[in-house]
Amino acid sequence: MTQPEPGTVVVTDAGSGRYTQRVTTAGHEFLADEPTSAGGADAGPTPYDLLLSALGTCTSMTLRMYADRKGIPLTRTTVRLRHDRVHARDCERCETEVGLISRITREISLEGDLDDAQRARLLEIADKCPVHRTLSHEIAIETHAI
Questions:
Q1: Where is the signal peptide (predicted)?
Q2: 3 within 8 A of 27, measured Cβ to Cβ
Q3: Residue 41: φ, ψ to 5°
Q4: Residue 5 is inside which H or E element, if any?
Q5: What angle do CA 60, 63, 65 make, to 5 degrees?
Q6: Contact 110, 62 (CB under 8 A)
Q7: How far apart are CA 43 and CA 21, in angstroms?
Q8: At 31, phi and psi to the nearest 5?
């Protein structure tokens, strides 16, 4: 298969395992799968693992770029994420009032000789990463048969 153009991701059945998928980008290729408990072969991260990793990597990269640009002595960032579903009525800041909603919990550990103001600013910047903005705004997904 030829590599897709930058900004395009192609996902195809890998041909091994019931749910195993080959993910191809402009410069990388890897497998995604479901765990054995869900009938998969556990040959790669799950779709939700990939979604969370997109948010986590974007958060960490955004913090690194900001800290470097502003001369903030950030030495290491660790982002831990979890996805679950909760009842809408239990969500304080959600527009949806009934049913279940997806919730992503993100914990950010900032290492370095940082003062309280720098830590607070970095946490504000975390919410400005492009993937966070995408996930927290309305998303239109258009599907076309080819």
A1: none
A2: yes
A3: -105, 0
A4: none
A5: 110
A6: no
A7: 9
A8: -105, 150
The pLDDT tens digits for 42-55 are: 999 999 999 999 99
pTM over 0.90: no
The per-residue pLDDT for range 11-31, each reduced to its tens digit, is 999 989 999 999 999 999 999
- Residue 24, Cβ neighbours under 10 Å: how many? 17
Q: Of 105, 102, 106, which Cα lies nearest the Cα of 86?
A: 102
Per-residue DSSP letter, 93: T
Q: Are 90 and 98 in contact (CB under 8 A)?
A: no
What's the CA dihedral at 137, 85, 110, 127 to 10 degrees?
10
CA distances in angstroms from 142 to 18, 38, 135, 145, listed in the order given: 26, 28, 16, 10
| Number of other CB atoms surrounding residue 59 within 10 Å | 23
Residues β-bridged to residue 83: 104
102 - beta bridge partners?
85
